[in-house]
């Protein structure tokens, strides 16, 4: 009898974490490595949030809490949805988990049966398909193209829906492409969803605050109130408030779904960290004035990276609307060889050769469901980004 479960065989370890680990290992060996793999802001959690956490500790708020969140935080989340998204929820419609990841996982675990299909636009965040498979469902990728700015069309969505479709996962701005759907683009998708009342919508709004130029963030339940009763809108403090390590995410949707998600959580982790919940409360209710400068900073970095990568031979890099990623296309490099003789036959070989020969760590596109590409996280300083892009330019120029 095998010791490991069949469930384990359905998933693979996160490739983004694997790249970060490999880069750290090379660094420890003394190599000059620039990591562009990690999906987290490079600056510290704002002081007022840290202070709120310290106060929570001093006040003894260090015990178990209600499984899916303290009432104050749920109220703050309701206020956030109303203020920023025009969505009205009661506390009973809100759940708080250990990161956005747990909230998504709870939703899938609480709803998927074998054979249930989940439509996932590709390129996708690496965890979606594996979470769906872990929960016993079947991921159905719908591939967006470079030509359509990495956004799927209404026709593609319509064609992917079957009687077995349970969820449509929507993520805008997207990890890994940074692509953001405008109101008009999203309306075309919600019109399709209105015609298929058995399909639920899981909107992952994690990068809501990281949008550039005059792009305006929109979420499905806001655009199409007719979908409110079958939409779970998820979000979190990890990316917007530089709080990846605190592990707080949240979601809002129909009471029955939220209750079911709470049941899953009650038999896995119980409540998210009590201290982190008070920190998240401060993040959502305290001053929001650092969001705008951060947006500006990330926008400038995006412009730098897009411009430098487009100057690299064989690379095409679209300019995304948000998040802190770009997803360049490397079709022009396939079939070429490095001076050391490595032939670039796919994006995984490209990323490995780039890391070994230049010390720049990126994540290969196959991990996100669209090749040949790679993902750059530009959540690092201008100087580091300029050096990394210069190395990529040299690497590409030397390919024969
Ligand atoms: C699209 C997307 N959703 C959810 C998450 C998970 O966020 P958290 O760290 O809060 O679990 C991430 C993190 O990388 C992400 O990129």
TrEMBL record:
Q: Which family does it belong to?
A: Belongs to the class-I pyridoxal-phosphate-dependent aminotransferase family.
Relate the assembly described in the record: Homodimer.
Q: Where is the Aminotransferase class I/classII large domain?
A: 32-392
**Matches recorded under CDD domains:** AAT_like
Q: List the molecular function annotations (GO) for this entry.
A: L-aspartate:2-oxoglutarate aminotransferase activity; pyridoxal phosphate binding
Annotated GO biological process? amino acid metabolic process
Q: Catalyses which reaction?
A: L-aspartate + 2-oxoglutarate = oxaloacetate + L-glutamate
List the EC numbers from the record.
2.6.1.-
* Keyword annotations of the record: Aminotransferase, Pyridoxal phosphate, Transferase
Q: What is this protein called?
A: Aminotransferase
Q: Which domain of life is it from?
A: Bacteria
Q: What Pfam families does its record include?
A: Aminotran_1_2 (PF00155)
- Protein's organism: Neotabrizicola shimadae
The cofactor named in the record is: pyridoxal 5'-phosphate
């Amino acid at each position: 009898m095998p010791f490991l479960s069949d469930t384990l065989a359905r998933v693979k370890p996160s490739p983004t974490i694997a790249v970060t680990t490999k880069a750290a290992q090379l660094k420890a060996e003394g190599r000059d490595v620039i990591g562009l793999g990690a999906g987290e802001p490079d600056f510290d959690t704002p002081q007022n949030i840290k202070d709120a956490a310290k106060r929570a500790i001093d006040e003894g708020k260090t015990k178990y809490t209600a499984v899916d969140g303290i009432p104050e935080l749920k109220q703050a989340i309701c206020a956030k949805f109303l203020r920023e998204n025009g969505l009205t929820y009661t506390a009973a419609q809100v759940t708080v988990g250990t990161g956005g990841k747990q909230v998504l996982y709870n939703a899938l675990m609480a709803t998927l049966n074998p054979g249930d299909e989940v439509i996932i636009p590709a390129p996708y965040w690496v965890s979606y398909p594996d979470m769906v498979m872990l929960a016993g469902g079947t991921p159905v990728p719908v591939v967006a193209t470079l030509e359509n700015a990495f956004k799927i069309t209404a026709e593609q969505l319509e064609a992917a829906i079957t009687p077995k479709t349970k969820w449509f996962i929507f993520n805008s701005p997207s990890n890994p492409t940074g692509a953001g759907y405008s109101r008009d683009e999203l309306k075309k998708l919600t019109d399709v969803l209105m015609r298929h009342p058995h399909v639920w919508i899981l909107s992952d709004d994690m990068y809501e605050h990281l949008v550039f130029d005059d792009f305006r963030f929109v979420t499905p339940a806001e655009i199409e109130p007719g979908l409110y009763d079958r939409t779970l809108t998820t979000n979190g403090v990890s990316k917007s408030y530089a709080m990846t390590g605190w592990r707080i995410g949240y979601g809002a949707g129909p009471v029955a779904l939220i209750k079911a998600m709470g049941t899953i959580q009650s038999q896995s982790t119980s409540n998210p960290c009590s201290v982190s919940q008070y920190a998240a409360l401060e993040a959502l209710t305290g001053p929001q004035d650092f969001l705008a400068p951060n947006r500006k900073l990330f926008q400038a970095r995006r412009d730098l990276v897009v411009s430098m990568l487009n100057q690299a031979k064989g690379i095409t890099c679209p300019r995304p609307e948000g998040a802190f990623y770009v997803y360049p296309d490397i079709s022009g490099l396939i079939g070429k060889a490095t001076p050391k003789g490595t032939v670039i036959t796919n994006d995984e070989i490209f990323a490995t050769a780039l890391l070994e020969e230049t010390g720049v760590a990126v994540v290969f596109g196959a991990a996100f469901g669209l090749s040949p590409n790679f993902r750059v996280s530009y959540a690092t300083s201008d100087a580091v980004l300029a050096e990394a892009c210069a190395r990529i330019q040299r690497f590409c120029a030397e390919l024969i």
